[in-house]
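Before surveying the methods themselves, we first show a specimen of the format, giving the amino acid sequence and backbone structure tokens:

:::
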Amino acid sequence: MSRKMFFINFLGIYLLLSIPFMFGVGSSITWVEEATMFQKLNSSLFHGISMYFMPKLIFSFLAGLFLFYFVSLKKKA
């Protein structure tokens, strides 16, 4: 598996871990009546990606390494 595939897997796992935070309630802009739909969407996406940044980063990196190792073992067999 190349570095490109490792990065794609890492990014996919990170975004998969961010989805619950993107759809969760808790952003103060969702309760503002004057906020446009774009502002609410932008706020939800930004907070979902940036919330709990370090644990998601570490878990995604370790899962990417595990997947990289597993695929390389499978190719050798």
